[in-house]
Amino acid sequence: MATLAADSRSMHKSQGFGVARARGPIVEYFKVLDEAATMAGRRSPSRHAVRGPRAHVGSLPSKAAGLLRGLTDKAARAFDATKPYASIPALLALDRALDAAPDASTRAQKKREVADLVLACAGLFVEATAAAAEVAPGHELEITASAIDRAPVKVTLDELRFPFESAGVSVGKPVAAPRPTPAGAALEIKRTIRVPVTEPATTPYWLEAPPEPGLYRVADARLIGAPENEPALRVAFGLTIAGRTFTVVRAVRYKWTDPVMGERHRPVTVTPLVSVRPDASVLMFPDAGPRALVRAPGRRRARRRGRRPPRAARGLGRRAAHGVVLAAAPGRRGPR
After folding, report:
1. 207-232 tens-digit pLDDT
2. Confidence (pTM)
3. Are 3 and 23 in contact (CB under 8 A)?
4. Beta pairing class for 244-258 and 234-241
5. For domain 124-270, which CATH number applies: 2.50.20, 3.40.50, 2.60.40, 3.30.9?
């Protein structure tokens, strides 16, 4: 309800009521003035919550497909929208049955769908946020991994895997023990990572190579058709839910509160160590020749958090402005 209330307040655009979503417990007091009519005779809620794992199992052998359809139908019939966590045992049985599916591709897809359903029925919310929206190679970034359970289900956070770290961080703490209250306090783990100096800048995959007339060259054909790149920074959550282990991956995002739009977020990007931002947002030249402009280069804000920037960046910014020459890149007609 707190999440819906925050979204509702943020809809008042002209009044600047934007607020961030609250997913932890909030105590409110109400006095009953009247009682609504009975729910008897009304249409029951939809029971298609487990429709995803049931669909597209035709590629499996008939025996395995029949077993999966039987388990999903049983879970669908028993689904209660007021107590979605009651469906977790049936979903875990479905997850165990998928272990025997012979087709690896279908098995992985269906297990991801079941894991999403288990998390939704458990009321589990996990996210990874960063202290800044941008980070340069060689710099540090603080990441906060958060998990909150909003249902009476026993969930344990076993391990966390942060970006650019080969070993996971052992946690072994319960997210929320079974209790009558709607939700427990969020479990937060903070860790400061260092981005490797060899990490490339975040660039749309179709712009990594110079384009040809009417065509963008993409080195990895598997990316063609994707709306955007895979997140540069991700955190993997190792969870145990009702005795079954799951791995949930979340992109690291920067989150802030806009006074009008409310809670906003964007992916964390890896940016060059030094960047140049011209005074004008649009530059047009009559020919392909280079042009000179004067502009102070931007530098990543490492000193603001009490850390010195890499040696290559020291000394930048001592002068008020630097001369920059825009020249045509190889294979291109020139700057625009």
Report:
1. 888 888 888 888 888 888 888 888 88
2. 0.67
3. yes
4. antiparallel
5. 2.60.40
